[in-house]
Hints:
- The chain has 230 residues and is of the alpha/beta class.
- The protein is 37% helix and 21% strand.
- The protein has one domain (3-67, 130-228): Rossmann fold (3-Layer(aba) Sandwich), CATH 3.40.50.2020.
- The protein has helices at 3-6, 20-30, 47-59, 105-128, 150-160, 176-182, 213-228; strands spanning 7-11, 40-43, 62-65, 69-73, 76-84, 90-92, 138-142, 166-173, 188-193.
- The strands form two sheets. The protein has a six-stranded parallel sheet, with helices on both faces. It has a three-stranded antiparallel sheet with strand order 4-5-6.
- β8 (166-173), α6 and β9 form a beta-alpha-beta unit.
- α2 crosses α3 (47-59).
- The mean pLDDT is 93.
Amino acid sequence: MSIRDIVKIISYSNEPFSGRIEAGELLGYHLKHLIDEHPVVVGIPRGGVIIAREIVHVIDGELDVVLCRKIGAPRNPELAIGAVSEEGKLFLDERVSGVMDEKTPYIIREKEKQMAEIERRKKMYREIKPKINLEGRTVIITDDGVATGSTMKAAAWSIQQENPEKIIIALPVAPSESLDKLSDVADEIICLRTPRFFEAISQFYSIFNQVDDSKVLEILKYEFVHSSGQ
């Protein structure tokens, strides 16, 4: 399957979204073809959780978060060479397998560092919203946008280890080169806007507030209570 078959770009416009809520609602509209699959919509904390919430409301999916962390390259931390899952499983890109493995001191240190942050978030998030089993499910991974795509790639790597039926990456905005890099970790990619000149995600939002943990917890609590009928 070619990149063109996987990546669906809705527009090349550089018009900003009013905020994350609008971006999430628009993504939900373009994901309506999945409504019968009752997908799990997984947001990357923190801004991606707001996007995920809006998608869930449009397509009647289930909300969750992905707590994986990327392993960055030794002299280029933004470049993902692997990921650590919420359960502590390590995945390394096959391109570095001949140079580094799980016993490499650098990888050991990075895994410990990223697991510490995962555990911090687990204590907060999973107390409110238990993790959903993704095996055999259609999973939509979302964020408020990607720049390099490294964090999104790490999230997809992590979710692949749970054997989902299908992985779909849904984004409000991303540069075309990053979408190309993500095409080997997803069955489908939908991006609302792929502007020809991309500097930062924030330039494509009229309001781009920082999202803190309390907002994520508020969303998770509401969605869990609503979905469980409590």
